[in-house]
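Hi X.,

You mentioned you wanted examples for the new student's onboarding notes, showing what a folding record looks like when two proteins sit in one file. Here is a clean example. The first protein comes first, with its sequence line followed by its structure tokens.
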Amino acid sequence: MATKKHDGKRAQMAKDSRLLADLVLSINATPTTNALHLISEVTELRRAQAELRRESEKNQALLRSASDGVHVLDTKGNIVEASDSFCTMLGCSREEILGSNIARWDTGYAAAKGKLAWLPDAANAQRRVVRGIYRRKDGSPIAVDVNGVPLTIEGQTLFFYSARDVSALVKMESVLKRQAEFTNCLVEA
């Protein structure tokens, strides 16, 4: 009888020991499990941040190396981003361009008292090309063909523009027009 009672106590102690071991393991496992999940999440966050950084660097490289004068304006006409070629076109440094207002270089903007007829309507995102005159830092004019389209980025309306220097083309058109006028005068005489 004592053996049965002893075996029963031993079985109960073994059962209690297993419960205690399970409890200790579960208490220790929860922080360990949480730590492993946290490490996993931090690793995933770092991977996502690295991917975003690579994408951002790629986009910056593409923008900055564009051959046309790419510039992005906010709704007040202030530059929020510009390509290196745009800075070169105006003879300004990046620091001078960023944050500056369109009135600084676009002669049409000043003439229209701050309203550009070619400013794209955010609701009507049609791209169109307009010939205009920009002024370089030194005051000299530069004929440009500008096209733009509105964009919404993170809830903010921005205007993406691309300006191409067409000064040589305008001069050629002027020469051809004078030659045509001269030829017409000769034919009429």
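Then the second protein repeats the pattern, sequence line and then tokens:
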Amino acid sequence: MRDEADVDPVGAGPPPEVIAGRLADAVEELVDLWTPAARPGGTRLSAQQLRALNAVARRPAPTLTDLAESVGTTLPTASRLCDRLEAAGLLQRIPHPQDRRALSLLLTPTGGRLLAEIGARRTLDLAAVLAAMTPPQRSSLEDGLRAFQAARHATARRTKE
């Protein structure tokens, strides 16, 4: 029997708050699956370090300011983050091509290989779980996640306006 709180009075099904609570458990499972893949060969990257490497990989020669904005941190924190990644041989700072006062950030070959390895491990781990689902379940999950992604981007755009 359904509780009245589990039904959205405007539309069909539970309201967003109820769904959010239910999805939190699934997200925790995904994090549990995702996290070990970020530690290949004894490398221990923090979540913020991994986010920083991914941010640098996605954007051509970002500056420290670009990185701070991408990972949602302050310039001093982003600078310390780069210090650690540079010391680990995963990132390098080079003169910015258009601004002599700025530095660009680049992945080193080691950093690029590490990101590729983590991505491959995560894909394999996720594929193993998806293989245990039926094709319609996988399609529904994909559709739902794409809709979530689109709604998140639309919400972020409205918030910035």
